[in-house]
Design brief:
The complex is a heterodimer of chains A (about 550) and B (about 180).
Chain A (H helix, E strand, L loop, with lengths): L1 H10 L2 H11 L17 H9 L15 H4 L12 E5 L9 E2 L6 E2 L4 E4 L8 E2 L4 E10 L7 E9 L19 H10 L12 H10 L4 E6 L8 H8 L1 H15 L3 E7 L3 H11 L5 E6 L8 H9 L14 E5 H13 L5 E7 L7 E6 L4 H7 L9 E4 L6 E3 L12 E5 L17 H5 L6 H9 L3 H6 L10 H5 L6 H67 L1
Parallel strand pairs in A: 8-9, 8-11, 9-10, 12-16
Antiparallel strand pairs in A: 1-7, 2-4, 3-6, 4-5, 6-7, 12-13, 14-15, 14-16
Helix pairs in contact in A: 1-2, 5-6, 5-8, 7-9, 8-9, 8-11, 14-17
Chain B lengths: L1 H26 L6 H9 L13 H9 L12 H12 L14 E5 L9 H5 L5 E2 L7 E2 L9 H5 L5 E5 L23
Antiparallel strand pairs in B: 1-4, 2-3
The chains are: A alpha/beta (about 550), B mainly alpha (about 180).
């Protein structure tokens, strides 16, 4: 099926190809064999027609990748004067700084250590002097302040002496996790979950398959694509190290079929290792969603409320694999990443390797972004990324792309009434009913929305993208999720309040009782004294 | 003879059962309506009086009597309103209810004399301080009952909205489309 559509797509014009593509993905036809070698054998593929479809929902968004995917990663980004390094660039507890203002640091030096089970340390992206540890605007839609370390660079970019490991495969699996954790590596696909925790979970659950996510299904972004094309060997080495760290058997690298060069490069690099399989997957957003990818590659469905490691699968991004390679082989912590800078307002769109903490404004100067044309700045991809209010915000570990979009690239927001076309239901990868959920949220019936599966919504944006009435469905779900969380917090607070009041009342009673007892004792003592006095007087 | 035995047995039966009922009334006494108790346990219990009743129990009694709406408790917010409505089986329309903005007390360091009056009245021990030391309010524990405001001799305690941080920042609800679209 895959081959047929690839061939036809080359011969026929764009519009027809798109229609055909959509037709091929219709429920009845969409049961692909994920990586069958015998494409012509119809009978072998026949059972697939009756099996469950491996891809659910999704959309074909305009790609917009060509501008950046055809150029090599730019590595000569001029070192900024100041870097703003947030202490929380990951899921979990923020890191705790262990440097003082005025300290001189070298590149790769530990600036803040991880605290708690789920956390990650932060390292110096270059050498220089710490000038401030304070609150600065966070790369978040609200741009509210969070704690950051401000590093004034000295331009030398001098590394801390690192100890390369001679043969990392002689290290124990636990040691690999420890080193990955100490290097501050988090999931670089955007979820920023600490990688070491994931490796440990994989080992504890004895997973059998490691999936390496090279889907990069978001439009515009091409940083993973370029990374796979240019640094395939390092990525494959990282994958082998991860397999070693999780004591897992085999790995599957899944790459969307709109990146043929990345696929070829990765396949070449993986050739000597039969345990690592590189496969192509159909191009369809959100193919890179972990559950969608797991379902497609393994045929297994991750149950609601479970982690993928519980069904024997763990998923990591290609960028993470590359960071693991650098951390284990060379002892280099995660201090830079490849960022896609693209969009209609960018004169020089590119993939560029930047030190973490670089302000967007510096990145935009380097890529010659036209501020007059920029209608919206987005961190991440256009489907799931967050829109940022200004450019005075730093890049972080989660920043896979920065987009400066023109007005013409934005979706029409002229909202019309819902016509109940159910397009949103057919594109929802989580199998929800977005229109019903949104209607209930509109009248504040959040409980019903939760019953309809609000908590399983991944905010992928497919429903908003496809909606012919331009209803901001995802915004409703984001609002409702926040509101549900706020209510849970309020409930928690009222529980705590009750506990505080009860404790206080008990204490007050105890104090009153003690005072009463003291009073009684005082009276008794006084009576005793008087009795003794009287007795003394009687004797004299 | 038969008549006499019937009278005696019935009298005895009556006496025994009456005695048992008397004991049951004494030892298995239901002190108040269980629904009021249940409601009271839902309410914050800080006796703050923001609902207009002298405390949480009178408010619970008014709710049971149908004299108060389920959205009566400002510190509880809509989460509590939903719980009350579910317990009493009331229809709840939250679309008209505006989420009350919770204010918390804050000490202004410039005017605090460290008189300790405020932390003595705080029902949740949210104020930390010592004699002749500047006091401070733990915002997470403050329920906005304003009792400390009333006793402060220097008016150094003031109500402020809760600071928005990344921890409690939320997406806003999308605005409804303009009314002209709905005309059809």
């Amino acid at each position: 099926m895959l081959k047929i559509y690839l061939n036809t797509a080359e011969l026929i014009p764009d519009g027809v190809a798109k229609a055909l593509k959509n037709f091929l993905y219709l429920p009845f036809f969409r049961s692909f064999t994920p990586y069958s070698e015998s494409g012509s054998d119809v009978f072998k593929r026949l059972p697939d027609f009756f099996s469950k479809p491996r891809i659910r929902g999704g959309v074909h968004a305009e790609q917009h990748k060509a501008a950046t995917a055809t150029q090599a990663i730019v590595t000569n980004f001029p070192l900024p004067k100041k870097l703003y390094i947030p202490l929380q660039q990951h899921v979990g507890k923020p890191a705790e700084p262990l440097i003082k203002v005025g300290d001189k640091v070298l590149k790769g030096q530990l600036l803040a250590y991880s605290q708690g089970m789920i956390s990650a340390p932060v390292h110096a992206p270059t050498s220089g002097i710490i000038v401030d540890v304070n609150d600065y605007p966070a790369p978040h839609p609200s741009a509210l302040p969070i704690r950051m370390i401000v590093l004034e660079t000295d331009g030398k970019d001098k590394w801390l002496a690192t100890k390369p490991v001679a043969d990392p495969f002689l290290l124990t699996a636990e040691d690999i996790s420890l080193r990955v954790g100490a290097a501050g590596i988090v999931g670089l696909g955007g979820a920023t979950f600490p990688t070491a925790v994931k490796l440990n979970m994989g080992r504890e659950n004895q997973i059998d398959t490691l999936i390496i996510n090279g889907a990069e299904c978001e439009p515009y972004l091409s940083c993973d694509d370029r990374l796979m094309q240019e640094r395939a060997e390092q990525i494959i080495d990282g994958v082998r190290l991860m397999l070693h760290g999780m004591e897992a058997e085999s790995a599957v690298v899944a790459i969307e079929d709109n990146k043929p060069q990345a696929y070829l490069a990765m396949q070449k690099a993986a050739e000597p290792y039969p345990l690592i399989k590189v496969i192509q997957i159909p191009t369809r957003y959100p193919m890179g969603w972990d559950r969608q990818l797991i379902r497609y590659v393994t045929g297994k469905e991750v149950p609601v409320g479970c982690r993928s490691s519980e069904i024997g699968v763990t998923i990591h991004n290609v960028g993470t694999a590359h960071a693991v390679h650098k951390a284990i082989r060379y002892g280099q912590p995660l201090v830079s990443r490849v960022v896609t800078v693209s969009g209609g307002a960018v004169a020089r769109p590119m993939n560029v390797e930047v030190p973490l903490g670089t302000l967007l404004s510096e990145l935009f100067d380097f890529c010659q972004v036209n501020p007059e044309q920029t209608a919206r700045i987005i961190m991440g991809g256009p489907m799931m990324g967050d829109s940022l209010p200004h450019t005075g915000l730093p890049t972080v570990k989660a920043t896979s792309g920065i987009l400066a979009l023109t007005l013409g690239e934005l979706k029409n927001t002229d909202e019309q009434p819902c016509i109940r076309c159910a397009s949103c239901i057919s594109v929802c990868p989580a199998g929800l009913r977005p229109l019903d959920m949104a209607n209930n949220i509109r009248i504040n019936q959040l409980d019903i929305a939760v019953d309809l599966g609000l908590k399983d919504c991944i905010s992928c944006g497919c429903c908003s993208y496809i909606c012919p009435s331009n209803i901001p469905l995802v915004q409703y779900f984001k609002y409702a999720s926040g509101e549900v969380a706020a209510r849970q917090q309020a409930q928690h607070k009222s529980g705590q309040t009750k506990r505080l009041i009860d404790d206080r009342n008990l204490r007050m009673e105890r104090i009153a009782r003690q005072q009463h007892e003291e009073e009684l004792a005082r009276i008794a003592a006084k009576a005793e004294r008087e009795r003794l006095k009287a007795a003394q007087e009687a004797t004299t | 003879m038969y008549v006499l035995s019937a009278i005696i047995s019935l009298t005895l039966l009556g006496l025994v059962l009456g005695f048992l009922l008397g004991i049951a009334a004494k030892y298995l006494k239901v002190e108040s309506s269980p629904i009021v108790d249940e409601l009271e346990s839902l309410l914050p219990g800080s006796q703050c009086g923001q609902c207009g009743f002298p405390g949480c129990r009178p408010a619970a009694e008014a709710l049971v009597a149908g004299k108060a709406a389920s959205t009566i408790c400002p510190p509880g917010g809509s989460a509590l309103a939903e719980q009350i409505a579910a317990l009493l089986g009331l229809e709840l329309d939250l679309s008209a209810v505006k989420e009350p903005e919770l204010l918390v007390a804050r000490v202004s360091e410039a005017t605090c004399t460290g008189c300790t009056r405020c932390f003595k009245v705080c029902p949740t021990d949210a104020i930390v301080g010592a004699p002749k030391q500047i006091h401070v309010v733990v915002a997470d524990a403050c329920i906005g009952c304003k009792k400390c405001i009333e006793v402060c001799p220097t008016e150094c305690l003031q109500m402020h909205p809760i600071d928005v941080t990344l921890r409690n920042w939320r997406w806003t609800k999308p605005a409804l489309p303009v009314a002209s679209n709905a005309v059809c």
